[in-house]
Specification:
Number of strands: 0
Largest sheet: none
Helix content: 55-70%
Number of helices: 2
Strand content: under 5%
Distance between the termini: 67 Å
Number of domains: 2
Order of helices and strands: HH
Radius of gyration: 25 Å
Length: 70
């Protein structure tokens, strides 16, 4: 964890305990809930299956619309 500055860089006011606590909580939440930069293989496979299903549905809907027009 980085050291706590003596002043707030945005306002040049002394850092308060409240602001330090807010920053620490925000950092903890960010590290806990930030999505990973790289997907797991299982999640990647599921996303690819969803994309394939969407493409098939779009292709089928296109055929159905063409049949109705004819």
């Amino acid at each position: 964890m980085s050291p706590i500055p003596a002043t707030d860089t945005q306002t040049d006011r002394p850092v308060t305990l409240h602001r330090v606590m807010q920053q620490m909580i925000a950092q903890g939440l960010k590290t806990r809930y930030e999505p990973p930069a790289k997907l797991s293989h299982a999640l990647f496979v599921l996303l690819m299956r969803l994309n394939d299903n969407d493409r098939r549905k779009a292709k089928t809907a296109g055929r159905d619309n063409a049949a109705v027009r004819a």
